[in-house]
Amino acid sequence: MYLMSQPDEGGEDTAGWVVLSGWIPEGWGENKHRYWQSVGAWLFVLAVGRSEAWKRGVFNTAPVQYLGRISYALYLMHGPVMHTLGYAIERAVWGWTGTEGWAYDAGFVLSAMMVVPLVLWVSDVWWRAVDKPVVRFAKWVEEVCSV
């Protein structure tokens, strides 16, 4: 998890990252901050994939199963929701909280508390109204076309 938390900026001057930043291959150019994040993400997925506790415990909980079912709808809907309402809500909340110091973070958290449920709701509606019927139709077509 430490490798996934490499600072996006100033990593080469940050305690704990000075040495690791020096090991990043030159080919990463302006995206050097992605090198250790990528290695860390790969190691995390490898570790979680081999962990029975994660597979049988965390991934079998109802909320995680639900997020798995609507994951494609989340992928499709998060952008439109963020660009139509999310950023407007964020600006409105920052107008109320301000953007100096802790107020910036407080405004972000407050707006996220409104936008995340909105994204989940829109994704759920998309999943029920579009994704499920399309999958049913595709299965029907497969049955009709199969011998």
From TrEMBL:
- What is the species listed in this Swiss-Prot or TrEMBL entry? Schizothecium vesticola
Which PANTHER family does the record cross-reference, listed alphabetically?
ACETYLTRANSFERASE (PTHR23028), PUTATIVE (AFU_ORTHOLOGUE AFUA_4G08520)-RELATED (PTHR23028:SF134)
| Protein's UniProt name | Acyltransferase 3 domain-containing protein
Which segment of the chain is annotated as a signal peptide? none
Q: Name one GO molecular function term.
A: acyltransferase activity, transferring groups other than amino-acyl groups
**InterPro entries cross-referenced by the UniProt entry:** Acyl_transf_3_dom, Acyltransferase_3
Taxonomic superkingdom: Eukaryota
Domain (Acyltransferase) ranges = 27-120
